[in-house]
Amino acid sequence: MAARKKAKPARRKAHTHKAATARGHHKPANSNDPHLSARPTWQGQLRLSLVSCPVALYGATTKTRDISFHLLNPETNNHIRMVPTDPDTGPVERADLVKGYEIAKNKYVILDNEELSAVKLETTRTIDIDRFVDEKEIDRLYWNDPYYLVPNEDSGIEAYTVIREALAEAGRIALGRVVMHTRERLVALEPRGKGIIVYTLRMGDEVIPAKDAFAGIPATRPDREMIAIARKIIEQREGDFEPDKFEDRYENALRDLIRRKQKGEKLVTAEPVEEDNVIDLMAALKKSLKAKGGKRARG
């Protein structure tokens, strides 16, 4: 009897977030609940000094529920295509277009793909942590979009958790840089539960100083009694932040409108909303206070 050949052990695949998707970390595309995208926004290395690990960024927010419209030709109901057009020669193939930076009226510096690719930064594939700050030091005006930073391979999980725990124990926000969507962005890394959240931060030249926007507002203080009444109204409406209880009423109204149109219902034009121009501010405040908060405003 021939000797039975030993079966070769199955090769263990490196864990990636794609494998996590197959295990159900991502919800189906047709789910109404927010879920991680199947593909990361960015992949590379998270590095703290000489310690690094492979990671991937996934958007922490989604716009999949937003209603978008197509432009149609009302005579044929055909979807209109936006065709690149030269004002002198007519339609141009999109693949033939080049990028140009305007240095003067109708004068451009032309850059081809090879030249653009030559401008490479280390941060295109690395989030290099180089500073740690107190969260309170970062003005809210600078916080931008949130992302989930997750290990991209089993081999990097230990280094990832070490960096996460060090951040948590230090009670600091890590600052680094990364190139996303052709731009280098400042990012803040915050430990959260078992993972790390990354926020893109606006650069200094992207934030308009508040004093410029509020320059025309007088520095005088309003009547103390009116402030006291307004504070009581605020106290009546205090509560916890519960985002699930807020909803986009305009988006819901649009969805309802689309459903009704689809069913062939005849729609009635809504009555215009009357504007309530407040003349006596004190009277309006006292009336609001007597209402004891009434129904709490929904998002």
Explain what you see.
The chain has 299 residues and is of the alpha+beta class. Among the domains are: 135 residues, Ku70, Chain: A, Domain 2; 33 residues, no CATH class. Helices cover 23% and strands 24% of the residues. It has seven helices and twelve strands. The strands form three sheets. Strands 7-1-2-9-12-11-10-8 form an eight-stranded mixed beta sheet, covered by helices on one side. Strands 3-4 form a two-stranded antiparallel ribbon. A two-stranded antiparallel sheet has the order 5-6. α5 packs parallel to α7. It is extended. It starts with 16 loop residues before the first helix and ends in a 9-residue tail after the last helix.
Mind telling me the CATH class of one domain? Answer: Mainly Beta
Low-confidence stretches: 1-15, 17-24
- Quick check: average pLDDT? 83
Helical content stands at 10-25%
First-residue to last-residue Cα separation? 77 Å
| Physical arrangement of strands within the biggest beta sheet | 7-1-2-9-12-11-10-8
- How many whole angstroms does the radius of gyration measure? 28 Å
Q: Write down the CATH topology of one domain.
A: Ku70, Chain: A, Domain 2
What spatial form do the alpha-carbon principal axes imply?
extended
Task: Please give a quick description of this structure.
Helices cover 23% and strands 24% of the residues.
Helices and strands in order:
Elements: H1 17-25, E1 42-48, E2 51-59, E3 85-86, E4 90-91, E5 99-104, E6 107-111, H2 113-118, E7 126-129, E8 131-133, E9 143-151, H3 157-170, E10 173-180, E11 183-192, E12 195-201, H4 210-213, H5 224-236, H6 249-262, H7 281-290
Parallel strand pairs: 1-7
Antiparallel strand pairs: 1-2, 2-9, 3-4, 5-6, 8-10, 9-12, 10-11, 11-12
Helix pairs in contact: 5-7
